[in-house]
């Protein structure tokens, strides 16, 4: 027998360590697991991630360039405090890009994707009922990005991720609202309706519901949350 035999196996993808580190820190910021005002050092993060300093330093530098972090005089990084004007600007821009992504995604939703969205929507509601801000923010991230990642536009997704990197840590302020009962946030919730619109293939309705979801949360925080004066 001569020549190569192919078994139709797909090659195993290998992701560089520095990309894994960057993605994990990025996800923590976007899903609000890291709060505003928190100082980040490469040594501490490397220990938590079980890696060396170098890929962590690379990730922090990239995140500084994306305006998610600011460098302190001692070289460590900090998640910047949020001003009211900056928050308003970020949320207004989110409306523009995320509504477009939702509209595009409506034509690309598979039955499997819709089932996953329903699960994420249910988990989001349950986290609010359980008053679990960590789970709520994580599920909110999962829900939204399950939509945006299939919109078919890499440039839109990049813009959305950049905005979430900046605003994600501040969304933990929801945990201090509604008289300490996170379930009150369900009055601002449109997730089940968003899934219904996507299942119907109605991109314009899905986009409008995303707009209402973002705007309702923004208006509440602009009125009730604590902002930096800087």
Automatic annotation (TrEMBL):
InterPro entries: GntR_C, TF_FadR/GntR_C, Tscrpt_reg_HTH_GntR, WH-like_DNA-bd_sf, WH_DNA-bd_sf. SUPFAM superfamilies: GntR ligand-binding domain-like, Winged helix' DNA-binding domain. The keyword Ribonucleoprotein does not apply. One of its GO terms (molecular function) is DNA-binding transcription factor activity. Pfam families: FCD (PF07729), GntR (PF00392). Keywords: DNA-binding, Transcription, Transcription regulation. Residues 15-82 form the HTH gntR-type domain. This is GntR family transcriptional regulator. It comes from Celeribacter baekdonensis.
